[in-house]
Amino acid sequence: MKLIKIVLFFLLIVTVACSTLTLKPTDFAWPVESVLKINDDGKVVEDRYAIEFDTRGIFYEELQDSSAFVNKELRMLRDMNGYYFITSEKFKNVYVFKADEGALVLENKILVSETGVENPALNQRKPFVELIDGTTSLYLTKEGIDRTAK
């Protein structure tokens, strides 16, 4: 019986010693959207937040044309949970990405307009990301449009 207690105590100590340090709460939100110009290679570079990625995949997903990035801008905002919300003029969707091992991985694709947005802007409205297009305003989470938010 004494041996079992010693083994259990040892396992408890090992488990506590191996636990991961977690700093909570953490707010990853960017205060304002980034309007990202796309270079000739289809990449965007945001020095302020130290992010760079190739845009051809998102343009192919949205418009079925990986070269549609020419003379375009992306609008991007990071929410308080660390998800990246990305859209552009004429996009029908807002794309929600999460960072994972040197990549942005699609978490959700939110349909916001059957005809495409004309002049999108993203704002931080914690806990939401607000998408404004003209007089239309939608409140987004990584799951989709929150119709209860005002």
Give a verbal description of the structure.
By secondary structure, this protein is of the alpha+beta class. It has one domain (23-145). It has 2 helices and 11 strands; from the N terminus they run H-E-E-E-H-E-E-E-E-E-E-E-E. The protein has helices spanning 2-17, 56-63, and strands at residues 34-37, 43-46, 51-54, 73-78, 84-87, 93-99, 104-111, 120-125, 128-133, 136-141, 144-145. The protein has a 5-stranded antiparallel sheet, with no helix packed on it. The longest helix has 16 residues, at 2-17. The model has no long low-confidence stretch (mean pLDDT 91).
Give the helices and strands, then pairings:
Blueprint: H1 2-17, E1 34-37, E2 43-46, E3 51-54, H2 56-63, E4 73-78, E5 84-87, E6 93-99, E7 104-111, E8 120-125, E9 128-133, E10 136-141, E11 144-145
Antiparallel strand pairs: 1-4, 2-3, 4-5, 5-6, 6-7, 8-9, 9-10, 10-11
* Mean pLDDT reading: 91
Number of helices: 2
Helix content: 10-25%
Residue windows where pLDDT falls under 50 for at least 5 positions: none
Query: What separation lies between the terminal Cα atoms?
Result: 61 Å
| Inertia-based shape | elongated
Derived from helix and strand composition plus strand pairing, the structural class reads alpha+beta
Question: Into how many domains do the coordinates divide?
Answer: 1
* Beta content: 35-45%
Oligomer: single chain
For the biggest β-sheet, the strand order reads: 1-4-5-6-7
Alpha-carbon Rg, integer = 21 Å
Element-level helix/strand string: HEEEHEEEEEEEE
Total beta-strand segments: 11
- Major sheet characteristics: 5 strands, antiparallel
